[in-house]
Structures are given as structure tokens and as C-alpha cells.
Design brief:
The chain is mainly alpha-helical. Helix content is 61%, strand content 10%.
């Protein structure tokens, strides 16, 4: 289990990171403490980004899992249940516990697919759009303030770091979303 750790007397592993994927180009040499500090920052940033929306959701009897569903369904109306399962990386049973109340309380509408009636497509209702928008606005304010403080190059760097931390499946999804936005607004078919 500890094979990846250096034994006593050995040097620590090389933690150099290439910024541009080219040998020797833009190398960063980071100590373990710098990685620990980054981890600390990520914990605090996530806590502070989610505190206000979590409190608002709690008043409605919802939690962070409900927020994730609202976010992703809002980002892609008529989302297949299978796609949501893949994005959230949870089981059908876990999704049912979260999605059920959102559907019963009128935040999410579930319909059958046009070409495959076995498919279940998810869309936010007007009530769901309003809730998702409220949650987004709460978080947008925190992000906008941080972006203003950090400046444009830092915002781009932040986006690049987060993307690099994202597994391939998530990157693929993000690329598809970006390509879809480049084509223009979706129209019902």
C-alpha cells in the first residue's frame, strides 16, 4: 500500500510539472507543501462556494445532490437519465432518491424519448429553472468577486487547472457542451 512512498533515506519523488506538455518547457518545481496548500485552498473554496446555496436548499428540504441534478439538467434540457448518471457517477438507486423529490415537487419534468420510448428525458420545469437560476446567481456573485480580484490571466489559468484535474469523461462532456454552444441555441425537434 505504501509502495508509492519513498523509504527512509531516499529522496522525495520529483514533483516537476510541465505546463505546456513539451519537454523542459515551462517546468514548475513544486514541493509537497505547495500541493498541500492547493488542496487546502480547494477545500475552503468549495466550502465557501457551496455554503449559501446549501442553506437555501436546506430550507426547501434539498441538499447538494439536488443542486447537482438541477445544474446539469439545466445545462442540457432533455438530458437522458443515463447521461446524468454518467456525469454524476452515481448509481441508479442514488439518483432515484435525489431525482424523485425533484420530480414530485415539480422542479424536474420527465418525459419519454421521441425515437426510443424507453428513454427518460429530463428537463427543468419553470419552477426548476427559477430555483436553478437562484442557486447560480448566489454562486455567480462569489465567482465574479474572485475573478475580479484575481484578474484575467488568473481566471484563464484557473480554468485550465480545473480542466486538467477533470477526468477524460468530464472533458469530453465539456467539449461537447462547448461545441453545442458554438452551433447556437438548441431548437426543439
Amino acid at each position: 500500500m505504501q509502495d508509492h512512498l519513498p523509504s527512509l533515506g531516499q529522496s522525495k519523488p520529483d514533483l516537476s510539472v510541465s505546463l505546456h506538455g513539451q519537454a523542459g518547457a515551462g517546468l514548475l518545481f513544486l514541493r509537497e507543501e505547495e500541493f498541500r496548500n492547493a488542496q487546502d485552498l480547494m477545500f475552503f473554496a468549495l466550502r465557501d462556494l457551496t455554503t449559501a446555496p446549501d442553506a437555501y436548499l436546506a430550507e426547501l428540504g434539498f441538499g447538494r445532490a439536488h443542486h447537482r441534478c438541477l445544474h446539469w439538467i439545466g445545462r442540457r434540457p432533455d438530458m437522458k437519465v443515463g447521461d446524468l448518471l454518467e456525469i454524476l457517477a452515481i448509481t441508479k438507486q442514488s439518483l432515484a432518491r435525489v431525482l424523485g423529490p425533484l420530480i414530485r415537487q415539480g422542479y424536474v419534468v420527465q418525459t419519454k424519448g421521441q425515437s426510443d420510448r424507453r428513454q427518460r428525458l429530463l428537463t427543468l420545469s419553470e419552477k426548476g429553472v427559477a430555483l436553478e437560476r437562484k442557486l447560480f446567481e448566489i454562486q455567480r456573485e462569489r465567482l465574479a468577486s474572485a475573478y475580479r480580484e484575481a484578474g484575467g490571466p488568473a481566471v484563464d489559468g484557473f480554468r485550465r487547472v480545473l480542466r486538467a484535474m477533470t477526468k477524460e469523461q468530464g472533458r469530453k462532456y465539456l467539449d461537447e457542451m462547448e461545441a453545442s454552444r458554438a452551433k447556437g441555441p438548441r431548437t426543439g425537434v
